[in-house]
Write a structure and sequence with these properties.
CATH class: Mainly Alpha
CATH architecture: Orthogonal Bundle
Low-confidence stretches: 1-7
Distance between the termini: 38 Å
Mean pLDDT: 84
Strand content: 5-15%
Oligomer: single chain
Largest sheet: 3 strands, antiparallel
Number of domains: 1
Structural class: mainly alpha
Shape: globular
CATH topology: Multidrug-efflux Transporter Regulator, Chain: A, Domain 2
């Protein structure tokens, strides 16, 4: 998974269920035509398509796009290399994301506990 420090310049992902291609483009600093191209190259990038073939990305899609962006732009991988890296890490990615969520919730609960103790 991406090193969290490599995406410091990217805005935080809002708490929404679906994102349009324009929103994802801004959140990941990638142009919409590049996102459409990446959909053809990376099998695990499959946004939901609704009326008029409009794409709606979910949070896990945005995280995947940020990971692809980091591999291609920051770490210098080729498309093929990035695809192989993502395919090899797919199982690890889900567990890493889960552990990050657990860590974040734990920190928030500890902060609440400190506030209650005061």
């Amino acid at each position: 998974m991406l090193d969290p420090g490599s995406n410091n310049e990217l805005p935080p992902i809002p708490a929404k269920r679906y994102f349009t291609i324009g929103e994802v483009s801004e959140l990941c600093d990638v142009k919409p035509h590049v996102l459409r191209y990446w959909e053809t190259e990376f099998s695990n990038l499959k946004p939901v398509k609704r009326r008029g073939n409009r794409r709606y990305y979910q949070r896990h899609d945005v995280l995947t796009i940020r990971q692809i962006r980091g591999l291609l732009y920051d770490q210098g991988f080729t498309i093929t290399g990035a695809r192989q890296r993502l395919d090899g890490e797919h199982g690890k990615t889900e567990s890493t994301i889960s552990s990050q969520i657990v860590r974040q919730v734990r920190m928030e609960l500890e902060e609440v506990l400190q506030l209650l103790r005061r």
